[in-house]
């Protein structure tokens, strides 16, 4: 494994993290290995960054992560726990701090390394009040770093303008060879500002592995997955470059993100995938290979849409109902 600093001022993390949306989540189906086996395999192979959220499995993902770390006797300071405050709970300071305390309890820890706002709250909500509340939580030692997720540039700027003492260290968003829209404006902005990039769905929910994947709710609702799984030009190129490295297409897709300066957080439901993804850190693509992959995926630059335009106009209670009933 290799390690990198998240942004200029964030924590040191493994260049490949582990996404935990899959833990306790209806949209993905059952795990094929236990949470404990998955977490142990990740740590044994040098992964230190674990990404979860209060909405994953209605808190179950956080709970399972905390239990697995304790059961395996993994010292708290050896891992970086990143979790997320749902946009519908980022409506005011008290509500946000209540969510934070609940996450700490489920994780069974005294602090969260990276606390991210999962998506921008509706535009009439008190985002500044929430962020200042998170700054107080940093001062109290409950959070080490503040991060954002699914915020387009203008919302990142709005959030940063609220902060007085602790700038955000990272932004998390969808980014892969099959979804490159953030390269248009968000990534150049974050690079300029020294803010780290966490890439979600780095394998386009499995499409970039080149394997035929079972249909589940997470995939059925993602147009990026559907498009990428039919893109023979991209998949053939990935496979060729992978073969040249004695690697897999999945490892090559993750190595491309690492070459772009992002930290991918692939999700996994089985130990074997965790091990394979951790080994992506050993694949170093040449500049020519990165260019070839850039060229074959240039069609996915598109324009950045993100969650924000819809999310900022949808009342919290509606967001909560949609996510709790349909999605989780
Ligand atoms: N901030 C946000 O709004 C947001 C949104 C989405 C995700 N996320 C985070 O990002 C993480 C990753 O995103 P994601 O889970 O949507 O997509 P992903 O990482 O692109 O895809 C994960 C799926 O790909 C397959 N896979 C993983 N490694 C593989 C390997 N080595 N070989 C073959 N197949 C492999 C597995 O599918 P099977 O298990 O079916 O084989 C796995 O469940 C999530 O767990 C979550 O932590 C954040």
Structure description:
- Helices cover about 40% and strands about 15% of the residues.
- The protein has about 325 residues and is of the alpha/beta class.
- The protein has a single domain (about 5-325), classed as Alpha-Beta Barrel (TIM Barrel), CATH 3.20.20.100.
- The protein has an eight-stranded parallel sheet, with helices on one face. It has a two-stranded antiparallel ribbon with strand order 1-2.
- Helix 2 (about 60-70) runs parallel beside helix 3 (about 95-105).
- Bound molecules: NADP nicotinamide-adenine-dinucleotide phosphate.
- The site of NADP nicotinamide-adenine-dinucleotide phosphate has 29 residues, from helix 11.
Sequence-ordered SSE layout with sheet pairings:
Layout: E1 3-5, E2 12-14, E3 18-19, H1 35-44, E4 49-51, H2 60-71, E5 80-85, H3 93-107, E6 112-117, H4 127-139, E7 143-149, H5 153-162, E8 168-174, H6 186-193, E9 196-200, H7 217-220, H8 223-229, H9 232-244, H10 249-259, E10 263-264, H11 271-278, H12 287-296, H13 308-311, H14 316-327
Parallel strand pairs: 3-4, 4-5, 5-6, 6-7, 7-8, 8-9, 9-10
Antiparallel strand pairs: 1-2
The chain binds NADP nicotinamide-adenine-dinucleotide phosphate.
């Amino acid at each position: 494994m290799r390690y990198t600093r998240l942004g200029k001022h964030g924590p040191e993390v493994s260049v490949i993290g582990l996404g935990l949306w899959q833990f306790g989540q209806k949209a993905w189906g059952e795990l094929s290995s236990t949470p404990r086996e998955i977490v142990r395999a990740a740590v044994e192979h040098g992964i230190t960054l674990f990404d979860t959220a209060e909405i994953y499995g209605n808190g179950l993902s956080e709970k399972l992560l905390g239990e697995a770390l304790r059961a395996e006797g993994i010292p708290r300071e050896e891992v970086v726990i990143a979790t997320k405050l749902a946009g519908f709970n980022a409506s005011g300071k008290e509500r946000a701090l209540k969510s934070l305390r609940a996450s700490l309890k489920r994780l069974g820890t005294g602090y969260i390394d990276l606390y991210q706002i999962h998506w921008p709250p509706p535009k009439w909500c008190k985002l500044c009040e929430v962020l200042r509340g998170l700054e107080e939580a940093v001062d109290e030692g409950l959070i080490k770093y503040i991060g954002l997720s699914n915020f387009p540039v203008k919302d990142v700027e709005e959030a940063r303008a609220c902060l007085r003492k602790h700038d955000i260290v990272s932004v998390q968003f969808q980014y892969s060879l099959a979804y490159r829209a953030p390269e248009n404006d968000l990534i150049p902005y974050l690079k300029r500002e020294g803010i780290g990039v966490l890439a979600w769905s780095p394998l386009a929910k499995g499409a970039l592995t080149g394997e035929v994947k079972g249909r589940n709710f997470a995939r059925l609702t993602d147009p990026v997955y559907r498009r990428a799984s039919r893109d023979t030009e991209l998949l053939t190129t990935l496979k060729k470059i992978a073969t040249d490295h004695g690697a897999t297409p999945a490892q090559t897709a993750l190595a491309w993100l690492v070459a772009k300066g992002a930290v991918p957080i692939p999700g996994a439901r089985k130990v074997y995938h965790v091990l394979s993804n951790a080994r992506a850190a050993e694949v170093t693509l040449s500049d020519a290979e990165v260019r070839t992959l850039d060229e074959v995926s240039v069609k996915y630059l598109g324009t950045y849409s993100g969650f924000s335009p819809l999310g900022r106009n949808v009342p919290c209670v509606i967001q909560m109902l949609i996510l709790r009933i349909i999605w989780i």
